[in-house]
Description:
The chain is of the alpha/beta class. Helix content is 34%, strand content 14%. The protein contains 13 helices and twelve strands. Strand 3, helix 3 (124-132) and strand 4 form a beta-alpha-beta unit.
Amino acid sequence: MKFRNKGRKIYKTKEKNYYGKSPADRILSTCLTLLLVGGIGVVGYSAAGPILNFTRKQGDDPQNDLPFTIDSSGFKGGDGTSSEDIFQPEEPASEDAAETSEAPDVKAEEYSAVALTVNDVMTVESLKNALAAIPAEEHIRYVEIPLKIAGGEVCFNSTNEEAWRSGAVKSMIMLPEYAETIKEAGFRPAGLLSTYSDNIMPASYPLAGYMTADGKDQWIDDSYEAGGKPWLSPYSELSVNYLSYLCGEAVEAGFDYVVCSDFTFPVFRETDLSLLDERLSRKDRFTAMTSVANSLYTKCLEGGVKMFVEVSASDLLSGKGEVLQPMMLSTGTVVLNIDIDHLAAGISDGKTIYEFTGTPAEITEKALGFLADRFKDFNTVIRISGTGISTEELLKARDIARDKGYNSYVIG
């Protein structure tokens, strides 16, 4: 439902005195102090292990204070083995070079991919045609196909009951057939899954979307007359199970990677927030999104599949990239989607207007200049996307990213 504007709702040691002691008292006091300090040391040492273990990510080496070290041979765990096959060795830079380098601190192995469109996967024949059009000289290794797109449509024949009952399923092709077709063409399959930009599933299952604090009404982003829509909510267990199920289907189908995007909240008015769950008004609401991202990461990892989080440059510049929390995300690799169409239209965060003009390569260079610092704690894959842009222009933009030290990329 759409709420009327009812105005802004505003949420609203003593120091001890010590006296002189006798020599006997001082000796007794000293002994007790030593015993107390020793006890604290033992307890502190016992507690430190569980705390450190809790804050480590899966795959970290408990024998080493750091999850990995960086030397001239690359990323190494505490036992000297490679941390993940996604990482590429990196020569250490001098302090002087570090001050002027525009490259990220941590780089991923070359993940070269092409992202196909919904039209490319409407039929097996259209998929084969799209695969045949990939330039052989670019040595593309992975092909990303849409599993679920922004808006909520599911682009394969899912076996999920909610997907069918809500009308989200738009294809009769099973995922294993997609995966096998991609492999036969000489590539490896990866899936793109939009998470919380979903207006279809909560329309049929209100409890999967945002509800008023009293649980009686469903929130929609505008009036019904103006085409208002509900949105999938990260606070709903039903929504988390739904996304996990779809990820599981990609894992079972033999995909190598699942790239999850759209970990964003819809735009809420102050009047909306006054009637919704109070957690949506808090600065730490991003924990809901990072929690879901970590849940999907675990789901994929258990099936031997890698999972990336994708964030868009336009979301980050407009202040909506809340999921990008290096200390909380389990995955160490993120995809930065530089959508040329979105950026060329101009971006505002309410205080600053970011204008992007010029070629896709020039827009890419400017976006990376604004956002490079946000990715220093991640392995970063750069995706260059947009409609009506030639392959040649996309590749030139890719080359700009490479010049800045980003060797992993997605085109499309």
